[in-house]
Each structure stands twice: as C-alpha cells, then as structure tokens.
Amino acid sequence: MSSDCLEVEQKDSKCYSDSPRAQFSSLSWPARIKAVFWGNPPEDMAERKLLLKIDLLVMSFVCLNYWINYVDRSNIANAYISGMKEDLNMTGDDFNVINTVFYVGYIVSMVPNNIMLLKVPPRYWLSFCCFAWAMLTLGFYKVTSYKQMCVIRFFQACFESSTFAGTHLILGSWYKEHEINTRSATFTSSGLIGIIFSGFMQGAIYTSMDGKRGLAGWRWLFIIDFLITLPICFMAFYAFLAVQTI
C-alpha cells in the first residue's frame, strides 16, 4: 500500500474518532442517556465546568423567569372562574378584551425590549422588567373594575415580553450552536409547566385563603404570585455576575 493511501486512511480514522458518533460511543451508559437529552459534554475539563456553571446559574434563572412569567399571565383565567367575574361585574366579551389588550402590549413591546437588551446588560434590564410586572401583578388584587384590569394587563404584557426575546439573546450569547437546541426546549417547557402549576395553585389558594382578612380567594392569588416572583427578580444579579457579565 502506498504512503499516500496510508495517509488518507489515517486522516479518515482521525476524522471518525473526532466525530460526534465516535464521541457518543465512547461514553458510559449513564453519560449516553444524559447526552441524548442534554448533548455531549465538552472534552476539555475547564470548558465542561464552565458549561455546568452556566447551566446551574444562567439557565436556571431564565427557566424560572419564564416559568413565573407564565404563572403570572395565566392566573387571570383562574381568577376569572374563581369569583373575579362576579366581583367585577364582568359581562359579555370583557374577559376576551382583557386578553386582547395583553397580547397587543406583548407584541408592540418585543422590539423595544430587544433594543434595550442591546443597550442595557440583561442582569439589569431583565431584573427591572421582572420587578415591574411583579408589582403590576400585585396591583391586580386591588382592582375594582374591568377597565382597571385592562390598563394593568397592558403594561404587564409590555414588561413580560422582555423574557422571551431576552432569553434567546442570552442563549445565543452563552451557548454554542450544538448546545442551544436542548436549552431552548427546556426553556420553552418551563413556561408550559407554569400554566399547569397555576391551575393547581389557584385551587389550593381558593380552598385555603378565600375570605381571609376580608379578601376573596382570587385576590390572594395575585398577592402570592407577587411573593413568588420577587426573589426571582433578584436572582438575575447573582446568576450573571457569578458567571461573567454579558
């Protein structure tokens, strides 16, 4: 066999050993299962530690932020069927109008939020937006009319829209191309989990808190939402500073 042929075979062998398939085959079974759902870990130990740190801090924050985002936005439907409709004398399409106002605010604010995220570090802007919609969520417990609900709902959407746009900027900044897919799927799933959690939480709150301190159960829902959201707002400072400022 000629030296040229040997050189080609050596190159082919090296390419195969460096291929994702070869790397996957060299892993233990527990590592293979993890790789299927979370991707192959980096070969370099320092890079692997950095990736783990980003997952534990940054990824945890964006998932919790999106989770509470969906909890806060979906709880209005649970409140509606738990006494809010009767207490605010809502009729006809009032509830649909509230939802429409929310999505109008959400759509018109996505581009401005993207621009702000390019000007202001995410740890500041996302924390501010999270705190702002937390305060607006708390404001729901004091509403006395459907019109007040519409106003709060619009501005709540303006701040909540920062989460979806901001997270994709963060994922694209911190993760490599082959690492983003699983992180994006996990991020999206966290929002859907928030919808499920919201229903169970409202049921528990209505059963145990209705009438306490003279407040209806649906009003307590928004107070508790606020208390859950508040610590997540401040988590962004630690999450980003502990890794590195974007």
From TrEMBL:
Subcellular location: Membrane
Main location class: membrane
Keyword field: Membrane, Transmembrane, Transmembrane helix, Transport
Keyword Iron: no
Name of one Pfam family that matches: MFS_1
GO cellular component, one term: plasma membrane
GO biological process: pantothenate import across plasma membrane
Presence of the UniProt keyword Transport in the record: yes
Residues passing through the membrane, by range: 124-142, 187-208, 220-241
Membrane topology field: Multi-pass membrane protein
Superkingdom of this protein's organism: Eukaryota
Listed Gene3D superfamilies: MFS general substrate transporter like domains
GO molecular function annotations of the record: pantothenate transmembrane transporter activity
SUPFAM superfamilies the UniProt entry points to: MFS general substrate transporter
Domain (Major facilitator superfamily (MFS) profile): residue spans on this chain: 58-246
Family: Belongs to the major facilitator superfamily. Allantoate permease family.
Protein name: Major facilitator superfamily (MFS) profile domain-containing protein
Organism from which the protein derives: Torulaspora delbrueckii
Gene: TDEL0A08050
